Amino acid sequence: MIDARSFLYVPAVKPALFDKAASGPADAIILDLEDAVPLQHKETARRDVAAWLDDRTGGTAQVWVRVSPDFLDADLDVAVHPSVTGIVVAKCSQDGLERTADEISDRGTATLVVGLIETAYALRHLDRLAAVPGVATFGIGEVDLLADLRITRSTGTQHVVDALRLDVVIGCAAAGLAAPIAPTSTNFRDLDEFARTTAAFVELGFRARTAVHPGQVPVINDALTPSDDQLDVARRLVDLFDRAAGGPTVDDDGRFVDEAVVRGARELLARAHRPA
Prior knowledge:
alpha/beta; seven-stranded parallel beta sheet
């Protein structure tokens, strides 16, 4: 189960940031062994992550680790750890997810797995990837995915990008997985735009988002936390439906309330019990 709203990427080459990030407002941090680590620093980064995981004493954030498909065995040797809640598999493939699942099984940990959809192949075969044991949900690496599809991001292609995002939402729902994790924005200074896009992701069916800067985290948490008014309405809908014992009923505005409406209300109430 994915119960984090915000995932803050932390470069694995900056161990001085680990404690601070884990003690900050993010529900989860992702120690990034992939893109954030130059080739010549891979081994040092792995050693620093391993040492921190062994000695961690503070912070309430979940710890996740992003691993690279090009160095999967070496990265998993560090990432599969009792202190790690989950592993993010970059550029996920069936082989990469299965190897990750096997390593987790061999070590006997309860580690979750999130695959990043970053290739056309992964997008087309999401149902196969979702069937790999331990896969909790997927995220989207949009820069890589759009490059693989030869799509240029622009105002003219925004509808295409939204359609790709919806494909992932549908794939996760069809497979019975948790709602997907929305991609971040590297424009971390424009928090108004980040708030707008985060709200749009929530409307589209995402229930978490990644961040590359601590300033983005409160924006994500706010967008993914139901308001008091929303909760009041949801509780009222559930109460009316329960009183009707599954029979027909209407809400306070005279609109028909059925199981589908109540299902949405219950999902919203469940989100109120996520980290705050």
